[in-house]
Design goal:
With 97 residues, this protein is mainly beta. Helices cover 0% and strands 73% of the residues. The chain has one domain.
Length: 97
């Protein structure tokens, strides 16, 4: 089992002020990875790998309409870790959009 946490600063630029609002953005920060596995050489005992922190960044595109938000980002972490994230969300408050 592996876990990847990120602590990133992000920014977005909205292409329209109201209604259907597409946006582009980016972020960068620290990604920390850790893993745990059962090993046959230790009789099935858990073996914990030390956590590893790396700098990473991502471009982001998406849209908001009303109080609905959808975005996609491609996270690049070092030369050996990268992944695509697709996010869907709703938000409350903030007045009419």
């Amino acid at each position: 089992v592996s876990v990847l946490n990120s602590y990133c600063a992000t920014g977005e630029y909205y292409l329209k002020p109201s209604g259907f609002r597409p946006f582009v953005g980016a972020g960068a920060g620290i990604y920390t990875a850790a893993s745990i596995a059962a090993s046959t050489s230790t009789g099935g005992a858990a073996v914990v790998s030390p956590s590893l922190s790396k700098f990473g960044f991502f471009p982001r595109v998406g849209f908001e309409t009303g109080h609905f938000r959808m975005s996609s980002e491609y996270n690049l972490v070092g030369s050996d870790v990268s992944y695509l994230a697709i996010k869907i969300g709703f938000f409350f408050g903030g007045g009419r959009k």
